[in-house]
Amino acid sequence: MLADFTILRPGSVAEACRLLQEHDGEVAAYAGGTELLLAMKLGFADYPLLLDLKGLPELGSLAVTPQEVRIGAAVTHRRLERSPEIAAALPSLVALERRVANPRVRAIGTIGGNLAFGEPHSDPATYLVATGARLVCQRADGTRRTVPAAEFLTGPFETILEPGELLVEVWIPRPAAGAAIAHQRMVLTERPAAAVTAAVTVDGGLVTAARIAVGAATPVPIRVPATEELLAGAAAEGLLDPAGDLLPRAGTAAAETVTIESGADVTYRRQLVAVLVRRAVHDALRAPAAVASSRPSRGGLTRAPAPMM
Ligand SMILES: Cc1cc2nc3c(=O)[nH]c(=O)nc-3n(C[C@H](O)[C@H](O)[C@H](O)COP(=O)(O)OP(=O)(O)OC[C@H]3O[C@@H](n4cnc5c(N)ncnc54)[C@H](O)[C@@H]3O)c2cc1C
Questions:
Q1: Residue 42 C-alpha from the chain's centroid
Q2: Residue with CA closest to ligand 1 atom 36
Q3: Interval 256-301: pLDDT, tens
Q4: For ligand 1, what atom is nearest to the CA of residue 51?
Q5: pLDDT score, position 302
Q6: Does the global pTM surpass 0.90?
Q7: CA atoms in the 13 A half-sphere facing the CB of 227
Q8: Among 191, 196, 218, which is best to mutate for testing ligand 1, by the most ligand atoms less than 8 A from CB?
Q9: Which residues lie with the beta carbon below 6 Å from any ligand 1 atom?
Q10: N or C: which end of the chain has fewer CB within 10 A?
């Protein structure tokens, strides 16, 4: 049962931040309310004031520039899932969004709410760490800061947001030529128990850069350098060879190095991580952008040192 509350409807992000600071402790912002209202119903949170972010045009923007995709914090999962612009610029994000939650949650739940709630079982958070996304936040004094997605979440249900600060936009760099992204997850009870995003660049048949992030099984999404180093310089053809051992080793390296969230079945989650890393890297290498760059150059299946992306 929900206790009574009053809804505030600010006219701008600046006013919203001011109200949040003025009423700190008594007010919570919300967009779709899929997390906040559930937490209030279950008695985990109690606010007499709720600040409605949905009507703020600055938070509802969606733009594709030559460098990046810029998504307002109050853009819903459904809008992302159905946007032709996003489908053209970042097809892997559309594929991810189609599998988030269920149609009802996707219709009103937002990318900003997903990130700001700090729910550890998040698909977008893992994706944004692998892709090197940046998050734009605005403070109550009107100043803005842009932080790497990898620094935004500091623990389960914890973010860097200060009192009076809102997440405004998510900026995702567009993949370079030959780069492809794939996201894999395993859902146990509604939300992912483990999630992996692989962002892999292929040139002349060799992996020239790999960014692999593991989330949902871990307290916050993290990159796995041990796996990235194994993949860098490897031949795409060799990684895709079902008899090859490098891809399984890359999965095992991730499973062995990540910290699994407390309370989880550690052995099972590590197995999930190993499998999902293999699948995500495999899918990225099979994506059209990577396949187009996969023709081996003269050296064919040799390994070469490669810089990180
Ligand atoms: C049944 C179910 C299944 C789900 N499955 C998945 C899944 O498979 N994968 C996945 O990734 N997620 C999943 N989710 C999470 C879902 O993505 C989030 O519930 C949704 O995106 C939250 O958005 P919202 O706008 O409703 O957040 P709200 O409930 O409105 O807000 C959540 C929190 O974020 C804060 N907040 C919201 N917007 C901002 C902002 N701009 N700046 C600062 N703070 C803000 C609010 O104060 C609140 O504390 C699931 C959720 C449910 C209920």
A1: 26
A2: 113
A3: 999 999 887 999 999 999 999 999 999 999 997 787 777 655 443 3
A4: 47
A5: 37
A6: yes
A7: 35
A8: 191
A9: 28-36, 53, 59, 73, 100-101, 105, 109-110, 112-114, 116-117, 119, 122-124, 161, 166-167, 190-192
A10: N
CATH classification code of 6-52: 3.30.43.10
Q: Rg (Cα) of the chain, in Å, rounded? A: 20
Question: In this structure, what are the phi and psi dihedrals at residue 107, rounded to the nearest 5 degrees?
Answer: -65, -30
Query: What is the Cα–Cα distance from 55 to 43, expressed in whole angstroms?
Result: 27
Block means of pLDDT (10 residues each) for the chain, 309 residues, are 92 98 97 96 95 97 97 98 97 97 97 96 98 98 98 97 97 95 94 97 96 97 98 97 97 97 90 98 91 59 36
Task: Determine the atom of ligand 1 nearest the C-alpha atom of 36.
Answer: 29
Helix (H) or strand (E) run with residue 81 in it: helix 77-82
Q: Best of 23, 100, 127, 160 to mutate for ligand 1, by most ligand atoms within 8 A of CB?
A: 100
Q: How many Cβ atoms are within 10 Å of 188's Cβ, its own excluded?
A: 15
Amino acid at 243: A
Ligand 1 centroid, distance to 295 Cα (angstroms):
42
